């Protein structure tokens, strides 16, 4: 499940300490200190956390788990490998203008959702989940987390582009208020970001606490590097 941009699980409890080892066939990524735990509809679970600026290994692990079709859906062009320019742009998160969260299963990154602001009150949304983990509700959990952060930052309008026929991503976007229309072979849309559902897939308080912690860390790092 992927949704591009121009650049049902029950609610769970609390942030949880991070594992440091990965599942077979994947790479566990460090640093991981605190997560938001989400119980998935199939009884499994996933851990969500903010992506840290410069975490290229996470991007590469998720990209490697996408099929040729999923890569095309995400980037809207054939993408046999992740170009260095794309890698730099996707890793350039700051917790404010560019916010991204990663989902992990057994310590291995399996999905990413992000928004990039286009105006003080508007942002573009994009997400991808590796093929082996699609259909479990991970994309919905990631989108719930990222849009929870977006609302807290004053984002009221959200937009996205999707390859025609990507029904799963269309459904995820409809949940947050994006109505899509066909334009030059792509589905594009913009909508007013809906209020968080009463039964959000994530613990919104835990998400906001972790997002605030991440933003503070990013600001401190930026101040240190410029001093």
From TrEMBL:
Domain annotation N-acetyltransferase: ranges: 46-197
Keyword Lyase assigned: no
Keyword Repeat annotated: no
Keywords tagged on the record: Acyltransferase, Transferase
Protein name: GNAT family N-acetyltransferase
Organism for this UniProt entry: Nocardioides cavernae
InterPro entries in UniProt: Acyl_CoA_acyltransferase, Bact_Acetyltransf, GNAT_dom
PROSITE patterns: GNAT (PS51186)
Coiled coil residues, start to end: none
UniProt cross-references to Gene3D superfamilies, sorted A to Z: 3.40.630.30
UniProt-annotated stretches for the region Disordered: 1-26
PANTHER family recorded: AMINOALKYLPHOSPHONATE N-ACETYLTRANSFERASE-RELATED-RELATED
């Amino acid at each position: 499940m992927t949704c591009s941009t121009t650049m049902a699980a029950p609610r769970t409890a609390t942030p949880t300490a991070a594992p440091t080892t990965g599942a077979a066939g994947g790479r566990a990524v460090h640093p991981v200190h605190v997560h938001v735990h989400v119980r998935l509809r199939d009884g499994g679970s996933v851990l969500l956390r903010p992506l840290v600026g410069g975490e290229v290994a996470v991007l590469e692990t998720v990209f490697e788990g996408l099929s040729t079709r999923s890569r095309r859906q995400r980037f809207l062009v054939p993408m046999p490998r992740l170009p260095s320019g794309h890698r730099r742009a996707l890793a350039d998160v700051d917790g404010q203008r560019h916010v991204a969260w990663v989902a992990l299963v057994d310590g291995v990154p399996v999905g990413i959702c992000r928004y990039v602001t286009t105006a003080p009150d508007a942002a573009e949304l994009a997400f991808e989940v590796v093929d082996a983990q699609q259909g479990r509700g991970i994309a919905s959990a990631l989108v719930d987390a990222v849009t929870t952060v977006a609302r807290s930052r004053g984002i009221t309008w959200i937009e996205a582009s999707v390859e025609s026929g990507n029904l799963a991503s269309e459904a995820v976007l409809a949940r947050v208020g994006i109505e899509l229309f066909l334009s030059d072979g792509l589905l594009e849309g913009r909508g007013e970001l809906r209020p968080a559902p009463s039964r959000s897939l994530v613990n919104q308080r835990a998400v906001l606490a972790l997002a605030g912690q991440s933003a503070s860390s990013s600001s401190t790092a930026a101040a240190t590097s410029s001093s």
